[in-house]
Amino acid sequence: MSSHSNKTLIEEFKLLDLDNLSDRSRSEYLYILLQFQSFQKQRNKVLKDSNTLDLAAFLNEQKKSCTGSTRRRKFYALKKFYYFLKRKKLIDPEELEYFEKKAPKATKGDEAHRALTEEEIKQCQSMISHPLFRFIFFLGIEFGLRRNEYTRIKLEDLDLQRKRLRIHGKGDKVRFIPIAKRHLPRFEQFLKQRKLDEVKHVFLLYSKTGKTTNKTIDRYFQEMRKMSGVEFVSHDLRVTFATRYYKAGMDILVISKKLGHAKIQTTMTYVKPTEKEINDRFLAIVEEMPI
């Protein structure tokens, strides 16, 4: 099958199976399919000849950089594509039995993400030498961004005079995170670097070809892992942000708001307070209350 035929197959899938999805979901499905296509190309295979063994190999490869929840989303996106292949009579229907038995588990808590230790943070800060990567790492542990939030920050979202950063989150919800005085030099230094690199577009982060995408961010984190020798994904920095500030005494509700969580229960799965921590915090306040 030629690359042109691959392109035609993807276009058909987009028109016939993704037309009723939101723009965001459609983009995510196509991005996952292109990831799978690239994986198949490396193995000298093409999309129309894909089988469930190929899918299993792809998901296994994704374990290196994705959580179970992310792999589950990729599984269901590709499941939709495989059923499209079935209707096109390009795949054996018996192959599809796999989809009813092998979906990756949507992991939570300790199984899904982790907070970096202070030693690992220091190791990353000392070993990650690239100024852009260092700044992205800084944004992760100090502002708790989601992966796609890195890509959406524009220069106008960074207000150093009012000392706040505007974040465009899930469902196009906007939140503001105050910028502490100790953070200002990091932003100023990065803006100087951005100018030296002659970046012309309006987005804060950048790549050689222009603004960043989710794929770009994934590649940057892969490079950060190589440089630092520490295994982590973008969401681990989000968990690290929550855990560090919770342990420093920040109220869980404040952390939840700054993460952009709709429910505080989600934040609780990040910080995972122990029974002792809960009791110690309770007693510390009770002891100070007047009788």
Largest sheet: 3 strands, antiparallel
Estimated structural class: mainly alpha
User: Could you tell me the radius of gyration in angstroms?
Assistant: 22 Å
Q: Termini separation (Å)?
A: 80 Å
Q: Please estimate the helix content.
A: 55-70%
Structure, described:
There is one protein chain. The chain has helices at residues 3-17, 23-42, 52-62, 68-87, 118-127, 131-143, 147-150, 184-196, 214-228, 234-247, 252-259, 264-271, 275-286; strands at 158-159, 164-168, 174-178. It has 291 residues and is mainly alpha-helical. The chain folds into two domains: 3-107, DNA polymerase, domain 1 (Orthogonal Bundle); 118-282, hpI Integrase, Chain A, CATH 1.10.443. A three-stranded antiparallel beta sheet has the order 1-2-3, with no helix packed on it. The longest helix has 20 residues, at 23-42. It is globular, with a radius of gyration of 22 Å. It starts with a helix and ends in a 5-residue tail after the last helix.
Identify the notable features of this structure and list them briefly.
mainly alpha; DNA polymerase, domain 1; hpI Integrase, Chain A; 291 residues; three-stranded antiparallel sheet
